[in-house]
């Protein structure tokens, strides 16, 4: 899309601008109204929403919730039978028939009750240890002490506290216990030292030492294994004892006082046997699904969580199982991984926050789950707030959490319905701005900054990743007009963006330059381009603010001058300058920056030219090249229209291009025809009638043929045309010049009934023909003369003759 000016008013300076819209990236469409063009753009309807990519098959985690439901059903059935057997033994057998029981049965019942009590105790604690240990597993699900130490859960806390009761009051640099929901603004910085100081003065549940100097008790790699084996042995013993007594049936002599002894004991042993068998069935089902069918690994693989995902899957399963056990057996069926991960984000513990962020980050990057995940995140305001808060976390220990949060927000902002939701979060723009910190002094070229810079505490911190993610988020947010205003008003954000456009000669000409640095420059230029191309008062404000930053134009000059091997960067830089030139002050800054004009012409023509004369010759030569013909015609037309007096000698040479332009008029159509006639109207002002006649002769064109072509063009476009909104104006201007220069031309125009056509044009004029350029469907710069006055002048010339 391109822009030009014509018929300058007094005191105006000429400028030629061109905007070429790059292909859409990242799923965000630049709104039409933000693009300048020579033709108005009709308001297009919103793009068809992308359909959900969710697979038709059920979510993989449903296998886990169903397994948890079945396990809980078996567990509660066994527990119910166990309770019934316990009540029957204590109330009926031991309480009502103790004096009539044989010594053997009394011992068997007592032993079975003890065994069952032990199993129930072991089972309840095993579930707790399994649940707690699920969050202490390493990346591959191993039980290494190192992975336990990275956790904040019960097992390692108990071990540490038992070994050294004073360890809990030491400063733990890796510990992060903060209120999950605070009243401070999202963008405000956190006082981590204050949070940790508070932790040091209070006991935390898992940190309380259970037994002093008893660390050896917890040497086992997994306490739940001991409890699990204890349950298994208890169940086997219970089943064996019960089955043996049911087979033996020697309950003593039968008398009046013991007539109910046998059925009572048979019922008790049957209940105990049934409970033990159901529990063994539960254990067998557990072993088959978990160990032999690798259920957790299968679900992790289907969720595309990669190797480390087993930790999250295991934790999710135990959460679902615990809900089925603690409440209704159906409670766990209501769980899903996305909701589970969202809840982990709100945890007080860093390892849980990391698990939640990693799951969501994997899902938003997975085609199968992305749409559903983003929908659930986008409809939860508190989750967006939490993610925006995480963007501002600068503690090196939280680098991975911050990166995952930035990745999620970048995907979230890619959905049209979420763009406003993200920007509406108080402090969100400021948090995004914190991602653009580059770890270097202002305007230092990126190649001078290492990929990882030293943080305040000496830990290496990767700034380049966050720079790219921050720019990507801003790029997607800038697709909305209101967000552009917020970006422009965010304190210190625009200078950060401009700072990232800095690229030194060394970086641009280094074939081995890190790709991340080139991508950072490219993405920052894309953001600037979107901001300066915004329409209305917001666009005017942004162009002023960006042009006021002293490094804007100079950074782009370096890119145009040294970026021969990075043409995309050069193109983006030129587009930024083109849009900035809409502002008068910015136009002056561009013109006063040394070498800019020469570099722009060099980019259009060829590198290395030094003389203005050579530039004009190259432009005229471009009139014969189809790829450059339209743009070259527009540049030459503006040079003719806006050249100063001191450049008149150079401009005068353009009359030599008249034969070529006349040939284009006779052969071209639509846009090329429009710009060719427009160029002719300007070149004619530099020549007399004799020179014009000579140009016609050199082009082997008769004046009658030219007049007929102009008339037929006017006849074809009986109504204003969006694709060529100035063609009727240019035809009338050319006709006026020809009739003024040679009165014989008036007769030729009358011969082809030009007068009637002018009357028809007068009845169909519109605002479409009154502007030089358009922004979407809005006209920006009006022509100095209205079309109605040109029509009146042409009609007067024809009538007076």
UniProtKB/TrEMBL annotation:
<keyword id="KW-0812">Transmembrane</keyword>
<feature type="compositionally biased region" description="Basic and acidic residues">
    <location>
        <begin position="189"/>
        <end position="201"/>
    </location>
</feature>
<feature type="compositionally biased region" description="Polar residues">
    <location>
        <begin position="31"/>
        <end position="58"/>
    </location>
</feature>
<feature type="region of interest" description="Disordered">
    <location>
        <begin position="173"/>
        <end position="201"/>
    </location>
</feature>
<keyword id="KW-0472">Membrane</keyword>
<keyword id="KW-1133">Transmembrane helix</keyword>
<feature type="transmembrane region" description="Helical">
    <location>
        <begin position="80"/>
        <end position="100"/>
    </location>
</feature>
<protein>
    <recommendedName>
        <fullName>ARM repeat superfamily protein</fullName>
    </recommendedName>
</protein>
<dbReference type="InterPro" id="IPR011989">
    <property type="entry name" value="ARM-like"/>
</dbReference>
<feature type="region of interest" description="Disordered">
    <location>
        <begin position="26"/>
        <end position="59"/>
    </location>
</feature>
<dbReference type="InterPro" id="IPR016024">
    <property type="entry name" value="ARM-type_fold"/>
</dbReference>
């Amino acid at each position: 899309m391109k822009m030009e000016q014509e018929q300058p008013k007094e005191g105006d300076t000429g400028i030629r601008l061109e905007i070429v819209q790059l292909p859409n990236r990242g799923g965000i469409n630049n709104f039409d109204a933000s693009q300048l063009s020579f033709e108005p753009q009709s308001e297009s309807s919103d793009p068809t929403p992308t359909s959900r990519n969710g697979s038709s098959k059920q979510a993989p985690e449903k296998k886990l919730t169903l397994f948890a439901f079945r396990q809980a059903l078996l567990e509660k059935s066994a527990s119910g039978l166990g309770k019934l057997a316990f009540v029957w033994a204590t109330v009926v057998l031991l309480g009502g028939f103790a004096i009539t029981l044989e010594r053997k049965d009394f011992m068997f019942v007592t032993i079975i009750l003890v065994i069952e009590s032990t199993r129930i105790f072991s089972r309840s604690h095993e579930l707790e240890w399994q649940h707690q240990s699920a969050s202490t597993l390493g990346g591959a699900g191993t039980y290494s002490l190192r992975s336990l130490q990275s956790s904040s859960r019960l097992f390692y806390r108990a071990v540490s506290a038992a070994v050294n009761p004073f360890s809990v009051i030491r400063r733990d640099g890796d510990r992060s216990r903060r209120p999950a929901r605070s009243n401070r603004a999202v963008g405000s910085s956190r006082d981590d030292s204050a949070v940790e100081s508070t932790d040091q003065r209070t006991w935390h549940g898992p940190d309380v030492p259970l037994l002093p100097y008893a660390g050896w008790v917890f040497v086992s790699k997994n306490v739940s294994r001991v409890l699990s084996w204890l349950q298994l042995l208890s169940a086997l013993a219970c089943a064996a004892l019960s089955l043996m007594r049911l087979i033996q049936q020697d309950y003593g002599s039968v008398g009046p006082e013991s007539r109910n002894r046998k059925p009572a004991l048979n019922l008790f042993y049957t209940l105990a046997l049934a409970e033990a068998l159901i529990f063994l069935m539960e254990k067998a089902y557990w072993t088959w699904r978990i160990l032999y069918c690798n259920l957790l690994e299968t679900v992790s693989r289907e969720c595309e969580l990669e190797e480390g995902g087993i930790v999250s899957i295991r934790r999710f399963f135990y959460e679902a199982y615990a809900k089925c056990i603690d409440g209704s057996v159906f409670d766990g069926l209501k769980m899903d991984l996305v909701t589970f991960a969202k809840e982990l984000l709100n945890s007080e513990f860093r390892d849980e926050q990391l698990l939640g962020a990693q799951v969501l980050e994997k899902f938003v990057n997975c085609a199968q789950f992305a749409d559903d995940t983003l929908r659930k995140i986008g409809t939860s305001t508190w989750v967006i707030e939490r993610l925006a808060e995480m963007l501002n976390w600068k503690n090196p220990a939280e680098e991975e959490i911050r990166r995952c949060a930035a990745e999620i927000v970048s995907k979230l902002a890619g959905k049209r319905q979420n763009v406003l939701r993200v920007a509406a979060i108080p402090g969100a723009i400021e948090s995004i701005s914190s991602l653009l910190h580059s770890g270097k002094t202002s305007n230092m070229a990126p190649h001078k900054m290492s990929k990882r810079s030293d943080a305040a505490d000496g830990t290496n911190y990767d700034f380049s990743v966050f720079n790219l993610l921050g720019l990507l988020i801003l790029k997607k947010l800038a697709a909305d007009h209101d967000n552009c205003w917020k970006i422009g008003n965010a304190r210190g954000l625009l200078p950060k963006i401009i700072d990232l456009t800095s690229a030194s000669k060394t970086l641009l000409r280094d074939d081995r330059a890190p790709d991340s640095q080139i991508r950072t420059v490219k993405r920052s230029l894309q953001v600037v381009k979107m901001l300066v191309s915004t329409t209305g008062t917001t666009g005017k404000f942004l162009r002023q603010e960006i042009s006021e930053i002293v490094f804007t134009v100079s950074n782009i000059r370096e890119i145009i001058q040294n970026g021969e091997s990075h043409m995309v960067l050069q193109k983006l830089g030129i587009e930024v300058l083109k849009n900035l030139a809409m502002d008068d002050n910015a136009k002056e800054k561009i013109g006063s920056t040394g070498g800019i004009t020469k570099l722009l012409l060099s980019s259009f023509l060829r590198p290395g030219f030094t003389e203005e004369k050579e530039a004009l010759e190259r432009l005229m030569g471009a009139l014969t090249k189809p790829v450059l013909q339209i743009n070259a015609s527009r540049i030459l037309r503006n040079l003719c229209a806006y050249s100063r007096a001191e450049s008149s000698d150079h401009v005068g040479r353009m009359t030599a291009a008249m034969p070529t332009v006349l040939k284009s008029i006779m052969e071209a159509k639509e846009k090329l025809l429009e710009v060719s006639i427009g160029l002719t109207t300007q070149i004619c002002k530099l020549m007399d009638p004799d020179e014009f006649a000579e140009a016609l002769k050199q082009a082997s064109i008769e004046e009658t043929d030219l007049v007929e072509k102009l008339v037929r063009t006017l006849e074809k476009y009986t109504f204003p045309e969006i694709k060529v909104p100035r063609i009727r104006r240019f035809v009338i201007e050319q006709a006026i010049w020809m009739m003024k220069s040679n009165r014989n031309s008036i007769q030729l125009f009358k011969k082809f009934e030009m007068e009637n056509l002018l009357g028809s044009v007068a009845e169909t004029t519109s605002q479409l023909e009154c502007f030089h350029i358009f922004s979407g469907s809005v006209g920006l710069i009006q022509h100095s003369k209205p079309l109605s006055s040109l029509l009146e002048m042409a009609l007067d010339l024809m009538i007076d003759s």
